Structure formats: C-alpha cells, structure tokens
Amino acid sequence: MYGRFAEAYARHSEDSPANAYYDRSAVLELAGDVAGKRVLELGSAAGALTEQLVYRGAHVLGLDREPEMVRLARLRLGQRARFEVADLAEPLTTVPTGSIDLVVASLVLHYLADWAPVLAELHRCLVPGGALVLSVHHPAADWQWAGRPVYLDTTLVTETWHLGDQPVEVSFYRRPLSQIFRLLRQAGFTIEQLEEPRPLPALEAANPKAYKTLSSEPVFLLVRAVAAR
Question: What Pfam families does this protein's entry cite (predicted)?
C-alpha cells in the first residue's frame, strides 16, 4: 500500500494531527538526547522523523520496505542520513551486531504478525544497554475500532484511510498489551517507560476536533525498552 501511495502518504504524515502533533513529538521525547548516537529507524517512510533525529545530532540509518519511500527519504535528507530497503520480517543482515545505540520504531511494528524475530534482531543490533523506542496503535483503541473482537487474541484489522482524496485500505495487527510486554521481555528487553501521550498544545488551535480526540481517547501507545547488558 505505501509503495503505491508513497507521495500521498508523505504529504499526509508531514502535518497530520496524529503524526506531526502527537506521535513524532512523543517518540522524540522518549528517545531523549540523541546527539552523537547511532540510531536505527524502522519504517523511516519519507524521512519526516529522520529529519528531526538528524537535527538533534543523531547518525541515522533508516530502513523501509518500500523502495519508493526510501527514494523520497533520500531526496529529503540527501547525505545527512543513510537509507536502505529492508523487510523487517527478515534478518537485518546489513546491520552489524552491537552497532546501534538506539532503535526507533514509529508506528511500524503493528504491521508484523510476529514480533519475536524482529525483536531478537533488534536486541542483537543494539549495544548492551541500548534502547528501543516504539509506538504502535493502542490495543484498546484498535479493539474498539475493530468491533470488539476477543481482546486477548492477535487480530488482523483492516481500515479505510483517506490520504488527501484517496481512500486506501490498510491492514495491521492488534495485540493485547500483555503480549507486547511479554514479547519484549522474552527478547531480552527491560521495559523502562510506558507512555499514553497527549498531543502538542498547538494542535488545539490548528485542529480542535483532533485535539479533543487525541487528548481524551487512547490512540497510540509508546514504550521505551532497554536491551539487557
């Protein structure tokens, strides 16, 4: 889907309430001081979050499954970051063991049916004590939007999004909070911080309706987890 609508998604995510005023700011807050750090960004898309990480002094390798997204990210960042095409369901063979200080996975892991292989790979790539910062759709929100299936099951959810004037069907997996925590622990991570963020105050003037929703409902879930030493 993102390959076929890469440019439309890039325009949408640049200033959409959920991305620009909610997720990116919360991810950057959990990432902390990234100056001089080697950052692996999963699902880097067209590079909007990458640019913020680079601005803060990070050395970023961005991975995305879609070649068109990688092309757009390279156009945006030039030589300021490195981007490669990679499928997160496969081993990250281009990333050496213990070569990464921080992994950032913004709104990408919920597209994977099985987290165990990629979490094992991320643990391998990180230095001891390195961190993983991830954001996903909130399990409670997806449970409600999907018609309240069995909460404890992992469920494939399909929604229709509107990228500008284009309706697009998007499928992803919702899983219970307990499974997210269990998979992280089994992969050797210690959960350091859990956030259910609020949007930036500037959204109230820019889009009052979105501000009300993002301020009052569970929409995204963010986790900072540290690789065991």
Answer: Methyltransf_11
